[in-house]
Amino acid sequence: MKNQITTILLLGVMSCALVAFGSMFGPGFAGIALILALGMNFFGYFYSDRFVLRYNHAREASPVEDPGLHRMVEELATAAGLPKPKVYIIDEHAPNAFATGRNAEHGAVAVTTGLRRMLSERELRGVLAHEMAHIKNRDILLATLAACIASAVMHMASMARFSAMFGSSQQDDDEGGLSMVGTILMSLLAPVAIMMVQMGISRSREYLADATGARLSGDPAALASALQKIHHGAEMETGNFEPATASLFIANPFLGSRGSWMNLLSTHPDMNERIRRLNAMTL
User: Fold this and answer.
1) Structural domain tally of the chain?
2) What is residue 21's predicted lDDT score, i.e. its pLDDT?
3) CA 198, CA 149: separation in Å to the nearest integer?
4) Half-sphere exposure in the Cβ direction for 24 (13 Å, CA)
5) By residue range, what is the domain housing residue 41?
6) Which helix or strand (DSSP H or E) is residue 116 part of?
7) pLDDT of residue 14
């Protein structure tokens, strides 16, 4: 419940920021950018699953190729009350996994060959339960809503910078407008702030998927053990992943740079904290 409330609050903050930022430049300014962002994200919502799978070189795995993987996915889908998602394999040594699809009927789960080799069947089941939780919790829809708002702010920021530099949006202080310097500064800071809120939403959904997946599999210790192995594997081998889709994976594929600043910018929660919470569920 706490993570659900956090997500709602963060989406509310993003929505308020969108309205506030747009109002600085006039209702027409905000409207154009919002319509553009909605159009882009409408297309992305319906076709993003195909794009993400193709972008990460995922290939659909048949039940004949990996009957054990299909069996676990089907069992977990039944336990979650969901249709069985499609199963994909990524030929990549680095261990990781992700789920995609705008709803349960279009769900897909992808795992790397490195993950398949590294984890025991019990640990793999925990990871698949986590991914099934993302589908059950409709996290793809929430991510799309967040991306829609973030895109609108970024488009408005670009338009604001263009208008300020070419003097087409000069406003008098008496009219409550921003100076050229103020407009450029705001257009640079607003996207950074909105991206940080968007990352906060992503992190809260990971905690929720961990908890939901642990209850779904009935084995939080297995998921905790799997996360520890995945984290260590990601530190040893970055893999050939695309940064644009890093937030979808169960663990951050790019762990080369660490520290408080990088944690702030990470789309994933601290791994030690995730493991601690899962282990606490076994007590």
Assistant:
1) 1
2) 59
3) 9
4) 24
5) 2-281
6) helix 113-118
7) 59
Is 39 in contact with 151 (CB distance < 8 Å)?
no
> Long-range pairs for 73-76 at CB < 8 Å and ≥24 separation?
73/109, 73/128, 73/132, 76/125, 76/128, 76/129, 76/132, 76/216, 76/217
**Contact partners, residue 75, CB within 8 Å, separation at least 6:** none
Is 242 a residue of the active site?
Answer: no
Nearest Cα neighbor of 274 from 230, 216, 218 is 230
Give the residues of the chain that fall short of pLDDT 70: 1-34, 36-38, 40-41, 44, 141, 143-157, 159-184, 186-191, 193-198, 244, 256-265
List 111's β-bridge partners, or say none: 89, 97
- Using CA atoms, how far apart are residues 20 and 90, in angstroms rounded to an integer? 42
The residue annotated as part of the active site, out of 123, 131, 235, 242, is: 131
d(CA 87, CA 89): 7
CA distance 150 to 197: 9
pTM of the model: 0.77
